[in-house]
Amino acid sequence: PVIGCLLLAAVIRLSKQAWRPQGLGHVIERFTFYQGYLPWQNTLHQFFSALVALASGLSAGREGPAVHLGAGVSSYLGQLFKLPNNSIRLLVGCGTAAAIGASFNTPIAGVIFAMEVIMAEYTLVGFT
How many Cα atoms within 13 Å fall on the side-chain side of residue 39? Predict the structure, then answer.
């Protein structure tokens, strides 16, 4: 754990300030204020930070990194294919649901979590 802390401190220290926000709170903020556009650099930073933290046994939960990575990858794909804002928002919800479903082996709970926490709306289109 000590080596993991030192490595994590080095990763955070060497990264830019804009890449440091992570987790569920960051995903909700980007979904609400930026139409679901998550920067790929931030997602990459989240991946390596979570990898070091979880591999070294630090007390980091798996739901925050899972949600951020699922939402970040789906947002990046939407940006890559130049999809409209509503499609990117839907993709972020799908990425979040997939991450929670895969992380805890509960696919329906992942969908309900994404609709309740991330998307904050219950529509038939969003559910399907």
Answer: 12
The owner of tokens 């949600």 is 67
CA distance 5 to 103: 24
Instruction: Return the number of other C-beta atoms located less than 10 Å from residue 124's C-beta.
Output: 6
Domain residue ranges in the chain: 21-43+61-126
Contact between 70 and 99 (Cβ < 8 Å): yes
**One digit per residue, pLDDT tens: the chain, 128 residues?**
899 899 989 988 888 888 888 888 889 999 999 999 999 999 999 898 888 888 888 877 778 888 999 999 999 999 999 999 989 999 999 999 999 999 899 999 999 999 888 888 777 776 77
pTM metric for this prediction: 0.86
Using left for φ > 0, alpha for ψ between -120 and 50, and beta otherwise, residue 96 falls in alpha
Three-state secondary structure readout of 28-74: HHHHHHCCCCCCHHHHHHHHHHHHHHHHCCCCCCCHHHHHHHHHHHH
